[in-house]
Amino acid sequence: MNMKARKYRNMAKSGDPCGQPLDRGTGGAQLQRWYWNQQSQCCLPFSYCGQKGTQNNFLSKQDCDRTCYEEVCIAFVGSGSGLLNLTRFYFNPVEGDCFPFDYRGAQGNENNFLTKKMCQETCKPSSSNKYLEFAASFCLMRADPGPCGRKIKRYSYDRRTGTCKKFIFGGCQGNLNNFESLEKCTEICCDKGYI
Fold first, then answer.
1. BPTI/Kunitz inhibitor domain location, by residue (predicted)?
2. pLDDT of 93-110, one tens digit each?
3. Do 167 and 144 contact (CB within 8 A), yes or no?
4. Could you tell me if 165 and 156 are in contact, meaning their C-beta atoms sit under 8 angstroms apart?
5. Nearest-CA neighbor of 72 among 57, 91, 99, 45?
6. Which residue has the higher pLDDT, 147 or 49?
7. Domains in the chain, CATH or no CATH each
8. How much is the pTM?
9. Residue 58: what pLDDT?
């Protein structure tokens, strides 16, 4: 790998390349590259002209998958805005599986799949250990109730005491140090030995 490619790859990871539109760039080159297509939620090939463009430009499908699938699959469930009430599926990296949620029809984020099968094919790991190790890093975050006004009992890991404690979740945003049960919080943050 040459230095330009290495520098570009690091630069791409520092921003949000997966949310940027496809831009073939300028110049006369015809370089095989990959980009994240938000509509189909997969990495697709394109011809890069060699200069400029956006950061949604990966040297290989593997680089694109590694960067964008992970971002999609770890995004907190987002109901979005609007008046619709559509059943969609999101991936919960703590649980390692896909669950239904009510989507309002606009905005939200990419962790939003039409079917459970599509969600699982995109996000479900072959080994749950990958996500359990990743999820353990969320245990170090402070409990975040989020900006919404619902009052939902949840549990979060408190790194000062080394135990899981109850907190009130507002129902949107927040972070993944947010468990539906004391047992699941304890399993992920206390019992696995990652912390």
1. 18-68, 73-123, 139-189
2. 777 789 999 999 988 888
3. no
4. yes
5. 91
6. 49
7. 3-73 (4.10.410.10), 76-124 (4.10.410.10), 130-195 (4.10.410.10)
8. 0.45
9. 92
